[in-house]
């Protein structure tokens, strides 16, 4: 027999074996704790994903700039409305990309994604853990020189 606390305070209601019933105060405590944990995780960035949508054309990113929290998971949807392949290359904070973008720049790449002409792809990566401004470039030959640049600002 399992007892349930009634409004009058008696504990004599009967239920089938195996059914678990808990008091209202215990259930309220558990729900409250779950809500507090959810708020704390959201405040710390632990439960949220930054959703970025970037359209590439010949030869620009729209939008050019974005802001995310340090260490946040990022979902990046790249839509290529251009006639050639484009890349979204995230460089190390403060790095000055050389022109043309080539092998000497590669060791300074934090993350990159590419998408063929007329295609759209979604990528997931973790934002850098250090706040700062991170250059974004298109790494396809000649695209940096044509002005395909932007900035990812990482905040605390």
Q: How would you portray this structure in words?
A:
With 156 residues, this protein is mainly β. It folds into two domains: 1-47; 49-155, Immunoglobulin-like. It has one helix spanning 24-43; strands at 49-57, 60-62, 65-69, 73-80, 86-91, 109-115, 120-126, 132-137, 149-155. Strand 1 and strand 2 form a beta hairpin. The chain is globular. The chain starts with 23 loop residues before the first helix and ends with a strand. The model is unreliable at 1-17, 30-35 and 37-43 (pLDDT under 50).
How far apart are the first and last residues' alpha carbons, in Å? 54 Å
What is the fold-level CATH name, i.e. the topology of the largest domain?
A: Immunoglobulin-like
How many strands, which pairing sense, and closed or not: the largest β-sheet? 5 strands, mixed
Rg estimate, integer Å: 26 Å
* CATH homologous superfamily assignment of the largest domain: Cupredoxins -  blue copper proteins
CATH architecture of the largest domain: Sandwich
What is the CATH class designation of the largest domain?
Answer: Mainly Beta
Tally of strands: 9
| Range of helix content | 10-25%
């Amino acid at each position: 027999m399992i007892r349930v606390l009634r409004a009058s305070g008696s504990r004599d209601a009967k239920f089938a074996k195996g059914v678990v019933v808990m008091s209202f105060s215990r259930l309220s405590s558990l729900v409250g704790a779950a809500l507090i944990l959810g708020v704390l995780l959201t405040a710390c960035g632990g439960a949220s994903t930054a959703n970025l949508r970037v359209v590439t054309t010949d030869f620009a990113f729209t939008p050019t700039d974005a802001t995310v929290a340090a260490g946040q998971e990022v979902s990046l949807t790249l839509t290529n409305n251009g006639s050639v392949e484009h890349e979204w290359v995230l460089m190390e904070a403060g790095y000055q990309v050389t022109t043309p973008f080539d092998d000497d720049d590669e060791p300074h790449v934090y993350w990159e994604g590419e998408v063929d002409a007329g295609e759209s792809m979604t990528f997931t990566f973790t934002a850098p853990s250090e706040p700062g401004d991170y250059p974004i470039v298109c790494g396809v030959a000649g695209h940096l020189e044509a002005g395909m640049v932007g900035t990812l600002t990482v905040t605390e």
